Every structure is written in C-alpha cells, then in structure tokens.
Amino acid sequence: MGRRSRGRRLQQQQQRSESAEDGGKRNGAGWEGGYPEIVKENKLFEHYYQELKIVPEGEWDQFMGALREPLPATLRITGYKRYPEELAWHTNLSRKILRKSPQLEKFHQFLVSETESGNISRQEAVSMIPPLLLNAHPHHKILDMCAAPGSKTTQLIEMLHADMNVPFPEGFVIANDVDNKRCYLLVHQAKRLGSPCIMVVNHDASCIPRLQVDVNGRKEVLFYDRILCDVPCSGDGTMRKNIDVWKKWSTLNSLQLHGLQLRIATRGAEQLVEGGRMVYSTCSLNPIEDEAVIASLLEKSEGALELADVSSELPGLKWVPGLSQWKVMTKDGQWFASWDDVPHNRHTQIRPTMFPPKDPEKLQAMHLERCLRILPHHQNTGGFFVAVLVKKSSMPWNKRPPKPQGEPAEPRAPVPPSPAEPTAGCASTPSELESKLAPGISDTGAAESAEDADGSGSRRGGVCGPPPSKKMKLFGFKEDPFVFIPEDDPLFPPIQKFYALDPSFPKTNLLTRTTEGKKRQLYMVSKELRNVLLNNSERMKVINTGIKVWCRNNSGEDFDCAFRLAQEGIYTLYPFINSRIITVSIEDVQVLLTQENPFFRKLSSEAYSQVKDMAKGSVVLKYEPDPTKPDALQCPIVLCGWRGKASVRTFVPRNERLHYLRMMGLEVPVGKKREGGAGAPGAGAASPAEPEDALGAGSPAEPEDAPGAGSPAEPEDGAGAEQEAVPDTSSGGDPAEAGLPR
User: Fold this and answer.
1) Which residues are within 8 A (CB) of 132 and not within 5 positions of it... i.e. 6 or more apart?
2) Least CB-packed of 174, 490, 545, 737 within 10 Å?
3) Closest by Cα among 564, 566, 571 to 638
C-alpha cells in the first residue's frame, strides 16, 4: 500500500507541475479555471442545419466560429428609474472571466451589488428583444406566460413605469410559470424593481385559467392587451453559454417540445384581446419549434391572427427572414419532407403540424418571412427566434352568432379537436368556466358566461385565499392568503394621522398575508390587480403580489404609530405622505449612509431644525437636487429612517446604500461583511430594518436557489445566476429589538 500511495503522490505532483507550466495558456484563454476542455463539435447538428439552409450562403464558417466562442456579458440599466437612453451595454468579456479574473473583482462586485438593488439587470442581449417588440405601454394588461427566471418580466415592469410621476399605472403584469420553485426566483427578480403592478402565479401555461374582472358591477372575462409567449425550448441557440448542448443536441428535443409550444401559443392567442399583440419567441434555431408552431397557429386561427411586419421597429438589429420551407429529421438522421412520407409507426413522434402548409397560396399569405431569426455571428450574440402576432378577431372555436333579443341562443356543435388542439384534455378552471367557454362562445360573449358560472363571486370579505385542494392541486409551498384591509379597520386611522396621508391615498388597496393575530407587514397593489385578486381566488394560485409599504414595529405604539415605513415601497408611498418628511442636503445623505446612528448635531443646520422638534418614530429623508449646482448629484433620493431620542438613522438595504454612495462618487468597499462595523458604509444598517425586503410578501418559504435558472429553456437570464455572491443583509430583526437610535 505504501508503494501505491507514493506512486499516487508522485503522479499528483507531476500533474501539478504540468498544470503550472500550462498556466500561461489558461490565462491567455480567459481564466478557464483548469476545467477540461469540452469539444465543441456535433456532426449531426451541422448536417441538420446545413441541410435546412438556416444560414445565408457563404457564412457557415463564421456561424460555427461564433458558436464556439464564449458569449459576451451584457447588462441592461433599469430605464424607468433614472437613465433615459443607452440602456443596454455589453462587454467582450465572458461571464467566467468576470467571475474569475482578480483584475475585474471590483467590477464584478459592482455588477452583483447593482443587480441586487434593481438598478441593472444582467441579461443576454437577444433576450431583450421580445419585450421591446411587444411595444407595451403603462395602461396595458400584460401576461408573461413562461416568465421565470424573470429578466423579460422586469423589462415589462419597467415599461409600465415609463412615467415615474405615476405611482400606480393603469396596467399590470401577470407573470406565470409552471415550476413552483422557479416562481420564487421570479418573485426575487420582480421585487428588485419595487412595483405594485406585478403578480406572480403558478400554472401550466398551456391551460392557464381565464380570469374575470369586475366592470361596473358586472363580471367580464379578462383579455390581455399584450402577451409574451417565451416558450420552453431545446435551447440550441445558447451553445455559447450552455456548453453541454454541444454533446447533448438531438432533434428529439424539438420533436418532443413542439406540441407543448403550440398549445402554449394557442392558449395565449385565446386570451389576447382583439387588436392586441403577442410575441412568440424561443432561443432555438430549429424551425420545428419556430416557424412550424407559427404556421400551425396561423392555419388554425383561420385569419384571426396575422404576423406583423416589425422590420422597422428595432433599427440596427441584424436578422434574417423566417423560413418558408423545411424538413423534419428524426434523432437517427432520417428525413421526411411531408406528413405523407411519415410511416405509421412514427406518428406518435412526428405530427402533421411540424410540416409547412402544402398549399403555396396559403403559405405565401402567412408571410413567414416576417419572423425574425437572429444568428450568433451577425452581432456577437446568441441565436434567437421572434415572431410578432396581432389578433384581428376571435379564434374560430370561440365564435358564435349573436343572440337574438328574447331568445336563448343555440350553441353550434363543438369543433372536434385536432391532434394538436391546445385545450384538449387540459384541466379546466375550478368553476368549470373553461369548459363552458371553449367550444362555442365568442370572446365578446364570454362575460355573460363568466357571470353565470360564478354568480356567487370569489370575494370572502376581502380574503383571497389559496384555491381549495379539491379543485386545484397545490404544488410546492402552501401560500398564505391575501387579505385586503377593510375600510373600517381600526389599524389604518393611526397610520393616516401619523403620516398625514393625502385623502386620495387608495387605502382599499392595502393587503396583508394573515387572517389571524397581529398584521406584521402591509402591502400595496394597484386597483386593477386588486380587482383581479378579489374575483379569481378560486381559479388561480397566486405566489406573490404587491409591494411592502409598512412594517410593524413591536414598540411602535409608544411612538403614536405601530407601523414604520419600508424602503421597498417608499417611492410608491411618498407622493401621499404630507408629514414626517425631513429635507436633507447631499452632505446629510453621506453622513446618514456612512454612519450607523449619527447625532442630530452631525446634520446640516436645516435638517437639524426640522428633526429636533419632531416626535420619535419613522421618518422620510428627502434629498432634492439643486439645479444651480450642476456638480452635485442631480437625482432625487427618498430614504426611510427613524428619529430617535438624540439621533437618526436610515433603514436602507445594504446594496441600495452602496448604490447611493457610488452615485456621490465615494469609493465603497464591497468585500465581506464586517463584524460589528458600525462605522463602515452600510455595515449592519440594513439588517434590522428590512428583514424581508429582498423577497416580498411574506411567503412561508421563498428559496433563491430555485433549480433550473440556467436551463436551456431559459438560458438568457444571467441576473439571478450569481445571487450567492451577494452578502446576506437580512437578519430578521425588528427595529425595536435591534437597537433604535438613541
């Protein structure tokens, strides 16, 4: 045994010396970290796409060369917060180089910190295209059907808040995902932006329930103005980032996903309002997942849908037109040019919807060339496919003649489902609304059925609980109910008096997550989302909604108000607050962010005169830029704080604190958390203040490490991929217990 162990040690020493000699090569290759090199070759992949001619003639070598290069890191600045233009940036460095290179450590820490604050999103360049083509506006009702991990969802939220002076846009985003665990990653992403107009739900997108809203006392079916349909896909456009695709690629993945993709797209089209826009996208180059789905959807829509020409909407974007002819290949390399050529024993694997339409006129009328194909070598990106659909009329299976006055309408015979019929065999909503709407009810007539099917309503004293287990299977964590605060609740008048809230404050939009005991957190939603919540608690599983605006302070009764302000929702709440506001200078902001409990005397004379006579309790610290001092920070800042007996402090999460200090030009260390570092910038200051700010509305368990964040189905989103690098800033304390200012 001794001889063997000595032999192993000698072998290990030899390997270490060889790796040391090769260190320069690894460094030159971009800090690969000593991992074995994956061979970026797949003959079947090359044969398949050369045969389909997806790349313009003469560009194949550049196409394959780009696929073998690492993907550059890209980021997007949160547009609605501060920056009017030049919102997306990319570097020629890969994500691995950013993580591993010592020279880039500070830059990497900056990216992680600013991402956590919601000021930037680390997102692949091509992933930014679908929300841009959706052309969403603040008044639009938007559905994101396959939303996790959420970078496209955050883009949509930014579009809703294009006007920062409007705290509650008329529109909203309902973000759905079938994976319960990935929903919590989605919650984490959305919460960074602090919007009251986002709701995260957990459903199978191919049969997502049809929702109702109350319109002037009458229930009507909710149709969406914009729908993002970024479906699960094989992900062969992500080979630059997901290296495993090289060895695992096969046409079988596309053949298996085609039916699901078509069902999801059809379900989206059913819920789109007439005149609305739906974007279908994949990170796959395979026409079976791309043009075949679009062609089949257009064919079954019988003119209700059409492809929009968006060639001029993104000037500067390089793309190639969609394919109009393609063939189907099995995983063992057998080709079929049409459905007639497919033997009977292959009918379960290959479906007729996978082939282009036979009729040349019908094919030409579809205008498949309006689809956008983005190839990696054109702009140093990943591969991507996007199609923009506009709804001209109701889907054919939702049409019926108008009901004559005084006569009950006789519904026409149900349309027999095709082999790829999207709603066939799909579980309907608990109230069986779906089964009543699907066969022969028009979109315009759906409101009547909605009212008939759920005459009793879903409201139970403002409590929107989870769906009963008998009517809907509950996967993952059991969610707490959403309970709206009654208008006569004695909890609210002290809050209204303490903060001198404006009479226009929408107090009916306040909710909590408990029906028993003390209410610890208060959340705010827009009135449109309140309408959705109150009328659909029986038919949808809501994971999270609303933005936290107040937190209970255990000894708050001693300060005239039991609730303190939460930084997460301060920008939503601030327009309604008329009291407890301290105007501070930029020097005051620096003191407040770098010192734990500064005494009143450390503030400017103006701030001191305001704070000295104020009662103890929660305060708003507001900095207004001075246009006569262009060298000073020209961005307004609103911070939550606490006025103690002789000092004042801020309750701001650590990464947001660091962001403001950077904006003031201060060098801030972003290393490991200091133990007991009261004088360090932000050290410990956020811990007692914002125990749950990172993850929102008080769910029982909200894991950040949801699996699948980097799966081929959602490869574009790097924003959540390195969250483990962010120091934990929430200790779960309460300001009363954690040592309020003296």
Assistant:
1) 155, 313, 314
2) 490
3) 571
- Which residues, 6 or more positions from 174, have their beta carbon under 8 angstroms from its beta carbon? 141, 142, 143, 144, 199, 201, 224, 532
Beta-strand relationship, 563-565 and 510-512: unpaired
Q: Quick one: which H or E segment has residue 173?
A: strand 172-176
Residue 109 to residue 88: CA distance in whole angstroms: 19
How do the residues of the chain divide into helix, strand and coil, expressed in percent and rounded to 5? 35, 15, 50
Report the half-sphere exposure of 204 (CA within 13 A, side-chain side). 16
Can you list the positions of beta strands (E) in 192-333? 198-201, 212-215, 218-221, 224-230, 272-282, 305-307, 320-321, 328-329
Q: How far is CA 210 from the centre of its chain?
A: 21
- Say which amino acid occupies 284: S
| Catalytic choice (146, 283, 371, 464) | 283
Distance of CA 532 to the CA centre of its chain: 19
What burial class does residue 4 get, using C-beta atoms within 10 Å of its C-beta: 0-12 exposed, 13-18 middle, 19+ buried? exposed
Q: What does each C-alpha distance from 258 to 106, 232, 270, 326, 424 come to in angstroms? A: 44, 10, 18, 15, 16
Question: How far, in Å, CA of 372 to CA of 318, rounded?
Answer: 9
Distance in angstroms (rounded) separating the CA atoms of residues 21 and 162: 55
For residue 64, give Cα distances in angstroms to 67, 234, 236. Answer: 5, 18, 12
CB atoms within 10 A of CB 514: 13
pLDDT tens string 635-652: 888 999 999 889 998 988
Give the Cβ contact number of residue 407 at 10 Å. 7
Positive or negative, the CA dihedral 360, 365, 370, 372 is: negative
pTM for the full predicted model: 0.77
Does the pLDDT at position 7 exceed 60?
yes
pLDDT tens for each residue of 376-430: 999 889 999 999 999 999 999 887 554 443 444 444 444 444 444 444 334 433 3
433 touches 453 (CB < 8 A): yes
Backbone angles phi, psi at 135, to 5 degrees: 55, 55
Q: 3-state class of 107 per DSSP?
A: helix
Burial of 85 (0-12, 13-18, 19+ CB in 10 A): exposed
CB 514 within 8 A of CB 480: yes
* Calpha distance 717→611 (Å, rounded): 44
pLDDT at 430: 37
The two structure tokens encoding residue 659: 């962001």
- Phi/psi at 606 (nearest 5 deg)? -65, -45
